[in-house]
Amino acid sequence: MKGIVILGATGSIGVNTLDVISRYQNDYRVVALSAHRQVDRLYQQCLRFKPEYAVMSDAASAEQLKAKLSHDAVDIEVLAGSEALETIASLEQVDIVMAAIVGAAGLKSTLAAARHGKRVLLANKEALVMSGQLFMDEVKKNNAELLPIDSEHNAIFQSMPEHYESLQQAGIAKILLTGSGGPFRQRSLSELSGVTPDQACAHPNWSMGRKISVDSATMMNKGLELIEACWLFDTDPDHIQIVVHPQSIIHSMVQYIDGSVLAQLGQPDMRTPIAHALAWPERIDSGVEMLDFFNMQQLEFEKPDYQRFPCLRLAEEAIRTGGTAPAILNAANEVAVASFLDEELAFTDIPLVIEETLHQRQSRAATTLDDIIADDMAARETAEQIIKSRV
Ligand SMILES: NC(=O)c1ccc[n+]([C@@H]2O[C@H](COP(=O)([O-])OP(=O)(O)OC[C@H]3O[C@@H](n4cnc5c(N)ncnc54)[C@H](OP(=O)(O)O)[C@@H]3O)[C@@H](O)[C@H]2O)c1
């Protein structure tokens, strides 16, 4: 029986993870679940999966959950606050931590899982984007296992040799990082300025949380994934080619120096990478429908459009700059996306806010977690001021 903690259990990845686990109740035991404010959803999950701990990072929500569970005489310890996320990610009886909190809020708990040598299933890409080297060092130092949940990185991982050390050692020429291009792939720049949050969140292939959906629409998601791939596979943007593939059937590819290209294909359903990472190196049924090649639509490939999607350029520049630049980029993006979702900022102003924040905030070496968090917070303030001056 493997003990598992799901950080961000009430989100899209969290729910998909519980769906996979529910098929293997003799193999996985849910030790702890976390949410931020969705009390009812976490309450239902608690009743069904009976974890030892439930964490609500929002204190008032934790009180509500506690009251509901004690009313039903359910014996689950409810913890409150963001420090409790680190506590559950570090518990001795935990083997696997699904890091599925959205944004910088997941950084410390994801790091805690790495520091305690867990198998870390990394969905929370923002944590790695922010802390890059520091995070990878903790994984190595503490013999943690880092398995990517992002379907693209999971596909790359599956297309690589088992004992991967570096692109050169593995005979890899390039990583081909695919992306659907999001809901606005074919919209002109002039049409983009008036798009609404609901339009931006209507992804053609994937059903996801609202923040990552907007990131997909601006293609910042692909930019964050470029940075994530640099850290996960110890490489640089010169060895990663973004390939727009609107059907989301090929989840990414690896091009070898002998001309071979290995790819991972599957339905656009996150339960596949989740099941892969949970059971690796074994395979388990994820509940996902099999691909039917005789009824598949045509597979298309395009070059990314850096003019319509400036977030791609900003992310590439940030990883080339290094230090805390990716953390500044990520913080400005989180603030700009939240403001767009609140209908305060225009869609096309998201990259402008990020670029101006990067211009105003100096990056520095990302040596300690405190430095990274300080630059993240300063970038948030700057981005908020920039937004205020625009609206
Ligand atoms: N969805 C996908 O298909 C997909 C694919 C690849 C990678 N990812 C990555 O996976 C992560 C999660 O994405 P998602 O789509 O599952 O997001 P989501 O549906 O918005 O869920 C986010 C989860 O994080 C919790 N949360 C939100 N703010 C928090 C805070 N301040 N402190 C602690 N917990 C907080 C939420 O709790 P409440 O429900 O209580 O608010 C929820 O459980 C993101 O980093 C995303 O980039 C997602």
Note down, in words, how this protein is organized:
47% of the residues lie in helices and 15% in strands. The chain is globular and about 55 Å long. 48% of the residues are buried. It folds into three domains: 2-148, Rossmann fold, CATH 3.40.50; 156-295, no CATH class; 322-390, Rna Polymerase Sigma Factor, Chain: A (Orthogonal Bundle), CATH 1.10.1740.10. The protein is of the alpha/beta class. The protein has helices spanning 12-21, 39-49, 59-71, 83-90, 107-115, 125-141, 151-158, 167-170, 189-192, 197-201, 210-218, 220-232, 271-279, 310-321, 325-341, 350-360, 369-390; strands at 2-7, 28-35, 53-56, 77-80, 96-99, 119-122, 145-148, 172-179, 240-244, 250-256, 261-265. Helix 5 runs parallel beside helix 6, helix 6 (125-141) packs parallel to helix 12 (220-232) and helix 6 packs antiparallel against helix 15. The N and C termini lie far apart (54 Å). It is built from 17 helices and eleven strands. The structure holds NADP nicotinamide-adenine-dinucleotide phosphate. NADP nicotinamide-adenine-dinucleotide phosphate (NAP) binds at residues 8-14, 35-38, 57, 100-102, 105, 123-126, 150, 206, 208-209, 211-212, 270.
